What we know:
Number of helices: 14
Number of strands: 20
Strand content: 15-25%
Largest sheet: 8 strands, antiparallel
Structural class: alpha+beta
Helix content: 25-40%
Radius of gyration: 21 Å
Amino acid sequence: MSSTASGKIGTWRNWGGNVAARPAREVTPASVEELADAVRKAATDGLKVKAVGTGHSFTSIAATDGVLIRPQLLTGIRDIDREAGTVTVEAGTPLKRLNMALAREGLSLTNMGDIMEQTVSGATSTGTHGTGRESASIAAQIKGLELVTADGSVLACSEKGTEEERAVFAAARIGLGALGIVTAITFAVEPIFLLTAREEPMPFDKVLADFDELWAENEHFEFYWFPHTGSTNTKRNNRSAGPEKPVPQLQGWIEDEFLSNGVFQVAQWVGRAAPGTIPTIARISSKALSSRTYTDIPYKVFTSPRRVRFVEMEYAVPREAVAETLRELRTMVERSGLRISFPIEVRTAPADDITLSTASGRDSAYIAVHMVKGTPYQAYFTAAERIFTAHEGRPHWGKVHTRDAEYFAGVYPRFGEFTALRDRLDPDRRFQNDYLRRVLGS
Length: 442
């Protein structure tokens, strides 16, 4: 059968290199029918099923010893409805291809994350987000979903459907792969627009003191803080009437590739070999960043290449708790003797109505901590997680955390809605794995 043509059974590893799995078989379906058939066959053989995109999650959310579905043949745009302002796209389409295809059509998503390597279904199922005052995660821009459920049937849902379809829609936009395998997504899009990005260094204490203003005055505000220093690099993106003024190619290569990826990679190697040098490297790195302003189409402003491999933990805390949380992180780093060579990233999102969205029902600030791939991250992440959870933080579903169903039932008011829906859609736990058993309960 063509859908098992990939046939190669080996070890699957995620992008961060911290998760590995050995599936019983891999299937690369060329159609929704083939995917549904693979799910039914897995049931007959008593195997679990997981779909995996580009492996950009740092959790084992996509790992399975059963059937691994690879959606790379389910790609491309199915339909553009200019009147409704929507685009329907196959689940395996990489965000990069979607962004470029939309731009050619004179269209764009309203907001996006800072990388675009992931598939649309992987990115939305785990709650991938950028930063925004009014505009939320990629999943919050979904208008309709199609998924294959545990019995092999195809279910379409939207906010306009039956009561059951609306319940599925509320949950499946960030479904963690627990409710079914997403086969197509309909996104809201708008005519393409220009964004002016203003990047500039700012002292850490000033950013915290002025955070509410910086958030209120900018459509998209974020900053990076370099631990062991009092320095941050801020980025404000706002809509612009133009003219287009992209970063010149050579300058862009120097700043985004050479400095942000090349020199940064070397600094990480030096830091790994001699951790004592990290505070000095951090001070030099934070000073090497200069201010710049440029105007371009959205995906060229929101996203940037990330070639240095890392492992990441990110928590959403209530937006009003962000300054306090960051001060506690700084104190922890200063007292711990830890050497942190990777900047801490801070973004925001407005409250949304998605059952298990990290911003569900509350305005949120995201704080992300990273360590370069291959360095021991446990001590740092454990100490950071202690601070995040004290503020009722909600971890990103695709990033390292140690929380379980009991914790989530406490920080997500609608947690029970999600698990009840899962009981209806997947009573035999066809889409279960160790990660879902931990975060959703069995």
